[in-house]
Amino acid sequence: MNYFFEIIIKVNTFVLEIWNDECSLCTFYTVRNDDDGVTVRESETDKFFEKYDAIPKFEKATIELLNFVLKAIGEDHGAIDELFNRHENEVDGLPLKGFLILGNTKYNYPNFPLRLFALRITNSIVVLFNGGIKDSDTNQTSSLRMQWKEACSYAKRITEALRNREIIIENNKLKCNTGSDTIYL
Q1: pLDDT band with cut points at 50, 70 and 90 for residue 181
Q2: Residues 6 or more apart from 98 whose CB is under 8 A from it?
Q3: pLDDT tens for residues 142-158?
Q4: Dist. CA 44–CA 16, nearest whole Å
Q5: Is residue 27 assigned to a domain?
Q6: Which helix (H) or strand (E) holds 175?
Q7: Is residue 13 a contact partner of residue 184, using CB atoms and an 8 Å limit?
């Protein structure tokens, strides 16, 4: 008997695009899935903020986290190491952990209920992914396990593309090595 097995390997692609470039110290990028040539309209970062802003229990935390991203990182300090101290394999979890004073501003997020995953490329370039509710001590046992794994997968691919020069950094922006602002990975 001859058996024929067909193995199909599906490679998901995604678009790496600017999420916010209006802050003075940092440009934020995000990813959108591009399965079978059909690009999803909503970015992973938008999914996160829209989902948790719509849940009354997490509305305040969502606003605090958005403020941390846009004001603390985007306007006040840039993507400095001190704000990215929650290392979770290939990505960092936001907001920061512990108590921190930078200038006249105090940052402290004890028992913060949400995590947003990010890849810090430079002090002025950050890729934001998705996230979720932090309901366990580790990501492996948390309900946000899938979002964390996806963020790590995206981060690996982006890091590899930077290393292989498929993506280049030009004037504090990411570009495809062809010069295009549209980056498909």
Answers
A1: confident
A2: 85, 108
A3: 788 999 999 999 999 99
A4: 11
A5: yes
A6: strand 173-176
A7: yes
